[in-house]
């Protein structure tokens, strides 16, 4: 059987930076607001931030995380919980306006055994979904096909956010 390549040139930045990463990329992003565009931080509020997942399951896959480095929902204050859920709602609205998904998966992986790649900093995944987006690539070859560049969608969501007066500090 002939082997085929699926090129993913954007991953080289991740591979080259593995040794330079701290234990928590979300805390790194929180401490460097001047790099929001480079880090694809979409919004910041008093209690949280929204950032693109740089290794998404689908186009528009966002992460909503508290500004405090906390691991569980029990650690979150009522104000943080409200802020996180408000951002989930706002993300759904912005994504709906920008790319018109048919639905969303919204969820959390709490703890390494539950699939959390970053188990010590709580975060919520918002994954836009379209009818028929599970296809042979994902089923047969364990490969996700992302149909739009992250920077292009970032700019699109910033524009929608400004028009809709969605949160951005």
Could you walk me through the main structural features you see in this protein, from its secondary elements to its overall organization?
The protein has helices at residues 11-17, 25-30, 36-39, 78-99, 136-141, 150-164; strands spanning 41-44, 48-52, 62-66, 103-107, 124-129. It has 169 residues and is of the alpha+beta class. The chain has one domain (21-164): HIT-like (HIT family, subunit A, 2-Layer Sandwich). A five-stranded antiparallel beta sheet has the order 1-2-3-5-4. A hairpin with a 3-residue loop joins strand 1 and strand 2 (48-52). Helix 4 crosses helix 6. The chain is globular, with a radius of gyration of 16 Å.
Give the CA-based shape. globular
Ends distance: 53 Å
Strand order, sheet with most strands: 1-2-3-5-4
Extract low-pLDDT stretches: none
State the major sheet: 5 strands, antiparallel
The first-level CATH class name: Alpha Beta
Secondary structure class reads: alpha+beta
CATH topology: HIT family, subunit A
């Amino acid at each position: 059987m002939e082997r085929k390549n699926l090129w993913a040139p954007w991953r080289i930045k991740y591979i080259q930076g593995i040794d330079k990463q701290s234990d928590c990329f979300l805390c790194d992003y929180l401490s460097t607001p001047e790099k929001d565009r480079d880090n694809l931080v979409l919004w910041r509020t008093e209690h949280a931030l929204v950032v693109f997942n740089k290794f998404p399951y689908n186009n528009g896959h966002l992460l909503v995380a508290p500004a405090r480095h906390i691991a569980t929902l029990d650690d979150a204050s009522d104000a943080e919980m409200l802020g996180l859920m408000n951002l989930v709602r706002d993300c759904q609205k912005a994504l709906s306006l920008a790319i018109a998904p048919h639905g969303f998966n919204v969820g959390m992986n709490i703890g390494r055994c539950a699939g959390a790649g970053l188990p010590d900093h709580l975060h919520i995944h918002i994954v836009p979904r379209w009818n028929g987006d599970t296809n042979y690539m994902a089923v047969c070859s364990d490969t996700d096909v992302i149909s739009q560049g992250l920077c292009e969608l970032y700019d699109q969501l910033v524009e929608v956010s400004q028009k809709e007066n969605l949160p951005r500090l």
